[in-house]
Automatic annotation (TrEMBL):
Signal peptide: none annotated. Residues 1-162 form the FAD-binding PCMH-type domain. It comes from Blautia wexlerae. The keyword Flavoprotein applies. This is Molybdopterin dehydrogenase.
């Protein structure tokens, strides 16, 4: 059971940061995951009055407030145009619309959950997090940091030229994913992200540079590179088993989803 001793709807981020320095204090997101746990919270800190629930855009980046509901991301026309529909695909299978109207992007990213579609998708872009005390940090760095008492304020997506595809495998439509995959060309960088392994999402380091210069490859070169990289990813992504799938099944999915996602990015397949 979740027990909250006191609740504070803060008037500023400075107030929230000061309150959050206590070990037993917690920032409230959408409360859809926190309420599932058994814990005692001395001070529940509500950021909902600070205007951090909006998506803004300029010529260089998208700025997404930490309290923005997942459904707002799912239905944002500019984000979905930029990601070629991948943003919507990464979110539309998460439980239901009512749930996605409550769950926040800040809670999803800050939690760095092993099952997170959201984390996988944002790692597939040039994404930064803005923390109240530490400032802007690349998501690729933040994902591996230990949790502390700083406050995630905004998620920033830089507008690099982007080709991307998001895929997931689920046993049933609204369940947690068995495996997630985002394939992207960010500028000239080819990036593959695998999540729900069932550990937190990771970038597959292409040490052999199999996908280098992917944009400029011929169709045959892309086909050969994709097949080789799918094999490479399956060999180098750590997986494990749980109630939703075995280690062996997830390793097979790494190969299959990686191949399919890169085929879509490369223009060989429109959708799966």
């Amino acid at each position: 059971m979740l027990k909250i001793k006191s609740y504070v709807k803060v008037n500023s981020l400075a107030e929230a940061y000061e309150l959050n320095q206590k070990k037993t204090a917690r920032i409230l997101g959408g409360m859809v995951w926190m309420k599932m746990g058994n814990r005692a919270i001395s001070t529940a800190i509500d950021l909902s009055g600070l205007g951090l629930d909006a998506i803004s855009e300029n010529d260089d980046e998208f700025v997404i407030g930490c309290m923005t509901p997942l459904h707002d991301l799912e239905t944002n026309e500019a984000l979905n145009t930029y990601t070629h529909g991948a943003m919507k695909e990464s979110l539309c299978h998460i439980v239901g619309v009512q749930f996605r109207n409550c769950a926040t992007v800040g809670g999803s990213i800050y939690g760095r959950y092993g099952f997170s579609d959201v984390l996988t998708m944002f790692l597939g872009m040039d994404t930064w997090v803005e923390l109240y005390d530490a400032g802007r940090i690349p998501l690729t760095e933040f994902v591996n940091m230990k949790k502390d008492n700083d406050i995630l304020v905004n998620i920033i997506v830089r507008k690099e030229p982007l080709l991307t595809c998001y895929l997931s495998q689920r046993n049933i439509k609204t369940d947690f994913p068995v495996l997630t995959c985002a394939a992207s060309v960010i500028g000239n960088e080819a990036r593959t992200v695998i999540g729900a392994r069932p550990a937190r999402a990771m970038i597959v380091e292409d040490k052999k540079q199999i996908l280098k210069n992917f944009r400029n490859m011929t169709k045959k070169q892309k086909e050969e590179a994709i097949e080789a990289f799918a094999e490479y990813a399956a060999e180098n992504v750590p997986t494990a088993g749980n109630m939703r799938g075995s280690k062996e099944y997830r390793t097979l999915l790494v190969k299959v989803l990686t191949r399919r996602a890169w085929e879509a990015v490369g223009g060989m397949k429109n959708e799966y």
